[in-house]
Design brief:
Helix content: 55-70%
Number of helices: 6
Distance between the termini: 50 Å
Number of strands: 0
Number of domains: 2
Strand content: under 5%
Oligomer: single chain
Order of helices and strands: HHHHHH
Shape: flat
Largest sheet: none
Structural class: mainly alpha
Length: 114
């Protein structure tokens, strides 16, 4: 397989990185081992759960979170933590959810309001 065939298999982001490298836009890191250690430490700190938080919420909201978590195959606490993390980092994307009642109507072939 030649370079053109390999390049054709790259996605847009990979192609952009390759083109940037070929334009000599990349420079070596001065102290590679120190940078790797710093980034590994930051990654470990990000994943470490350091604080416990108690919140009050409605029974219906908790039940909905538990149901969604069950669908996703993860503990509901993990789902809650993920939602909060995405919110504070600006990456939370709101999407409409289909309720159990709407799903039941769909399965019966009946219309429901979106």
């Amino acid at each position: 397989m030649d370079d053109k065939e390999l390049t054709a298999q790259l996605d847009d982001e990979e192609r952009e990185i390759l083109e940037s490298f070929e334009r000599d836009e990349w420079v070596p890191v001065a102290d590679k081992e120190a940078v790797i250690a710093r980034l590994q430490s930051a990654a470990a700190a990000t994943l470490r759960k350091e604080r416990r938080v108690n919140i009050r919420m409605t029974t219906a909201d908790l039940a909905a979170l538990q149901s969604i978590a069950l669908e996703e195959g993860i503990p509901y606490q993990t789902l809650m933590s993920s939602i909060l993390h995405k919110y504070v980092t600006g990456r939370l994307v709101e999407r409409p959810r289909i309720t159990a009642a709407e799903l039941a109507l769909m399965e019966k072939g009946e219309a429901y309001k979106t």
